[in-house]
């Protein structure tokens, strides 16, 4: 085909995709039904993870709960059962490859093959880079980033084989805007965002259009991870409940990136049009970020495998 015609066709498709995206702002695609599907959530015993499990169960999913804290995990499973849902709790340290492999095998044997994997487990210390101990920086990446590789390698093969499934990776708005006193955390969540984006392209290249990915980017949540949020114009934390409900709405509409609250999508579009100095100025004006909360002696601020 003539190169001029190819360029015209390309531009036509680009314009169409823009119009499609604009249309979906006002008329979003219908939510898919997950009734009877097996949904696995890591970091299920607390905060966002707990609320994700409860909401997925309300929608009729069979929920598999993974957490390093057995007591909390079992408590959430009991909540689901008391409400008439199906829950299958497993104690698992998602940073240990052998543990992930062993427990994944148990899940396949006890419950079945997972349709939706939600990588939610996370940790945050919240201190200046120079105050952080190497073991805490390493732990941040082990929980927030590397664990998602280990769970993915367990559950993605079946999805690829059947060309059916959904992978959800929970990142953060700090994956789109690096934040002071969150250098390690922001870096780990940037990695999650890039991991999800690259994985989606790889799945597409391999022709598995039935396997979906979503990257969830919430603002600060009152789950215990962040203790001293700063925001001049929106000083309140998101609750774990509203974060989970907003995330699931985007996930079930097969959105590639889910912002919670959704209005942050527009803020990021505006931000992309600004120079770096202008962005920094607006961030300073809005006093957006956190105050230091990390104590190397007590590791105040850390919440392991809990969002």
Explain briefly what this protein structure is.
The protein is α/β, with parallel strands linked by helices. The chain has one domain (37-290): NAD(P)-binding Rossmann-like Domain (Rossmann fold, 3-Layer(aba) Sandwich).
Write up what this structure looks like.
- The structure is a single chain.
- This protein is α/β, with parallel strands linked by helices and 307 residues long.
- The chain has a single domain (37-290), classed as Rossmann fold (3-Layer(aba) Sandwich).
- Helices cover 48% and strands 14% of the residues.
- The chain contains nine helices and nine strands.
- It has helices spanning 3-26, 47-58, 70-82, 97-110, 134-162, 183-205, 240-252, 264-272, 276-285; strands spanning 38-42, 62-67, 86-91, 116-119, 165-170, 211-218, 229-230, 257-260, 289-290.
- Strand 1 (38-42), helix 2 and strand 2 form a beta-alpha-beta unit.
- Helix 5 runs parallel beside helix 6.
- The radius of gyration is 20 Å and the shape is globular.
- 40% of the residues are buried.
- Catalyzes the reduction of all-trans-retinal to all-trans-retinol in the presence of NADPH.
- It is found in: Membrane.
The count of helical stretches stands at 9
Give the H and E element order.
Answer: HEHEHEHEHEHEEHEHHE
Q: And the CATH topology?
A: Rossmann fold
Approximate strand percentage: 5-15%
Instruction: Give me the Rg, rounded.
Output: 20 Å
CATH class, named Alpha Beta
The largest sheet, given as strand count, sense and whether it forms a barrel, is: 7 strands, parallel
User: Gap between N and C termini, in Å?
Assistant: 52 Å
Which range best describes the helical content: under 10%, 10-25%, 25-40%, 40-55%, 55-70% or over 70%? Answer: 40-55%
Q: What CATH architecture do you see?
A: 3-Layer(aba) Sandwich
- Strand count: 9
Low-confidence stretches: 300-307
Function: Catalyzes the reduction of all-trans-retinal to all-trans-retinol in the presence of NADPH.
Keywords: Lipid metabolism, Membrane, NADP, Oxidoreductase, Transmembrane, Transmembrane helix
InterPro entries: NAD(P)-bd_dom_sf, Sc_DH/Rdtase_CS, SDR_fam
GO cellular component, one term: lipid droplet
């Amino acid at each position: 085909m003539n190169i001029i015609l190819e360029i015209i066709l390309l531009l036509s498709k680009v314009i169409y995709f823009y119009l499609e995206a604009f249309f979906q702002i006002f008329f979003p695609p219908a939510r898919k039904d997950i009734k009877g599907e097996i949904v696995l959530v890591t970091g299920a015993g607390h905060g966002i993870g707990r609320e994700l499990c409860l909401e997925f169960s309300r929608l009729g999913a069979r929920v598999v709960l993974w957490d390093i804290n057995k007591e909390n995990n079992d408590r959430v499973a009991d909540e689901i059962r008391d409400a008439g849902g199906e829950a299958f709790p497993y104690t698992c340290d998602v940073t240990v490859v052998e543990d992930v492999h062993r427990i994944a095998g148990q899940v396949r044997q006890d419950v079945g093959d997972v349709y939706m994997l939600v990588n939610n487990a996370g940790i945050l210390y919240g201190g200046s880079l120079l105050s952080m101990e190497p073991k805490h920086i390493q732990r941040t990446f082990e929980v927030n980033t590397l664990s998602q590789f280990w769970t993915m390698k367990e559950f993605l093969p079946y999805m690829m084989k059947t060309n059916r499934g959904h992978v959800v990776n929970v990142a953060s708005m700090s994956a789109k805007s690096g934040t002071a006193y969150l250098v390690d955390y922001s870096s780990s969540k940037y990695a999650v965002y890039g991991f999800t984006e690259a994985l989606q392209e790889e799945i597409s290249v391999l022709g598995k259009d039935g396997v979906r990915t979503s990257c969830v980017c919430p603002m600060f949540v009152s789950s215990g991870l962040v203790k001293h949020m700063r925001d001049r114009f929106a000083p309140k934390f998101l609750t774990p409940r509203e974060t989970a409900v907003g995330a699931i709405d985007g996930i079930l509409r097969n959105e590639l990136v889910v912002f919670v609250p959704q209005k942050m999508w527009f803020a990021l579009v505006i931000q992309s049009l600004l120079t770096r100095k202008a962005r920094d100025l607006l961030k300073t004006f809005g006093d957006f970020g956190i105050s230091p909360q990390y104590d190397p002696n007590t590791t105040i601020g850390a919440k392991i495998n809990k969002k």
